[in-house]
């Protein structure tokens, strides 16, 4: 009986090992077998049968990778491919494209990859964070939160975001602020892309009931590696605004130019900053600035702590309103990729 149990156990082990076709060889020659799910921002995610949570491994610690799975792959020159990844003869790696071609390159030419499944959930990413603070003096309290939702396809992505802030204090008017956006980006050859964004903003500091903004333009990644990226873009924007002290909505037409920098090869830290300048075309001398800075530190189980600054400036603010509004938020959050 013991021999039968031993044989069954052995066969189950062999079957499990055969089912897990992905393997990693580290720079110290250690080997890991499991499901290589993705490499994003310099971190490889691996799922194994012997752990309840995924392993996070630095990309620079991996010397070889062998997989037969299909991935969405981005290279440093901007090309976006579909295929499997295997080390040919280190330091050379092969990408076996689904069209039958084979591409040989260096490991660090690979910026990003994610297992390509046809189901909806495998392409989805979600992050949620919240903060709360209370001070007994003047009964000051502040509640805030952010939510982000993304969907990635082979040649485009769609992202939605929403942010909310509420602040109350004795003998002071309540502070209210909310903003959100829906962004579409179509990837083009040589790291160019087309972008279209619908966004909205309301805040009490600038007496702004609601500003909606629809912009479209072209952008390019100037730097695009597995440690960081820098993108610049520009285009045109249409704006509709409603202020507390004005009955009619204001419509205007703007140009815009902006940049985005993301640094993610700094341990468990991640820093993202964006700057967009809007010189008005229809209102002489008017220009606006939107700026954001977010940094987060990754914790176990996909949790993180986060701090951020969001700033809006209008050099021709309406009468009685401030030309500058900004908010600083800190909190804890969770993400799903």
SSE map:
Layout: H1 2-19, E1 22-26, E2 31-40, E3 43-47, E4 55-58, E5 62-66, E6 71-75, E7 80-89, E8 92-97, E9 102-106, E10 110-115, E11 124-135, E12 140-152, E13 156-169, E14 172-187, E15 192-203, E16 208-224, E17 228-243, E18 250-266, E19 269-279, E20 287-298, E21 303-314, E22 324-336
Antiparallel strand pairs: 1-2, 1-5, 2-3, 2-10, 3-4, 6-7, 6-10, 7-8, 8-9, 11-12, 11-22, 12-13, 13-14, 14-15, 15-16, 16-17, 17-18, 18-19, 19-20, 20-21, 21-22
Task: Give structural notes.
The chain is mainly beta and 337 residues long. The chain has 2 domains: 2-116, Roll (SH3 type barrels); 122-336, monomeric porin ompg (Porin). Helix content is 5%, strand content 67%. It contains 1 helix and 22 strands. The protein has a 12-stranded antiparallel beta barrel with strand order 11-12-13-14-15-16-17-18-19-20-21-22. Strands 1, 2, 3, 4, 5, 6, 7, 8, 9 and 10 form a 10-stranded antiparallel β-sheet that branches. A hairpin with a 2-residue loop joins strand 7 (80-89) and strand 8 (92-97). The protein is globular and about 70 Å long. The relative contact order is 0.10. The model is unreliable at 2-20 (pLDDT under 50).
């Amino acid at each position: 009986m013991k021999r039968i149990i031993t044989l069954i156990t052995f066969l189950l082990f062999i079957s499990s090992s055969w089912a897990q076709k992905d393997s990693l060889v580290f720079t110290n020659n250690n080997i890991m077998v499991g499901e290589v799910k993705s490499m994003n921002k310099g971190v490889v995610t691996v799922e194994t049968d012997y752990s309840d949570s995924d392993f996070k491994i630095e990309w620079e610690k991996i010397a070889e990778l062998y997989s037969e799975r299909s991935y969405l792959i981005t290279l440093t020159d901007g090309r976006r491919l579909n295929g499997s990844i295997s080390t040919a003869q280190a330091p050379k790696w092969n990408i076996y494209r689904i069209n039958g071609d084979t591409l040989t390159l260096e490991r660090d030419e690979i910026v990003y990859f994610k297992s390509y499944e046809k189901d909806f959930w495998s392409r989805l990413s979600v992050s949620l964070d919240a903060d709360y603070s209370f001070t007994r003096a003047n009964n000051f309290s502040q509640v805030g939160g952010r939510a982000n939702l993304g969907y990635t396809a082979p040649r485009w992505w769609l992202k939605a975001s929403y942010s909310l802030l509420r602040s109350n204090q004795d003998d002071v008017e309540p502070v209210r602020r909310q903003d959100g956006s829906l962004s579409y980006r179509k990837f083009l050859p040589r790291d160019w892309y087309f972008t279209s964004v619908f966004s909205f903003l309301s805040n009490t500091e600038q007496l702004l009931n609601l500003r909606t903004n629809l912009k479209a333009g072209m952008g390019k990644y100037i730097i695009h590696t597995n440690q960081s990226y820098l993108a610049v873009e520009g285009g045109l924007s249409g704006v509709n605004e409603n202020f507390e002290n004005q009955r009619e909505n204001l419509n205007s037409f703007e140009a815009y130019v902006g940049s985005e920098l993301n640094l993610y090869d700094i341990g468990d830290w991640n820093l993202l900053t964006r700057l967009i300048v809007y010189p008005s075309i229809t209102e002489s001398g008017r220009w606006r600035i939107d700026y954001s800075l977010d940094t987060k530190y990754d914790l176990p189980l996909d949790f993180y702590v986060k701090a951020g600054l969001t700033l809006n400036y209008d050099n021709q603010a309406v009468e009685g309103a401030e030309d500058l509004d900004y908010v600083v938020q800190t909190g804890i959050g969770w993400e799903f990729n």
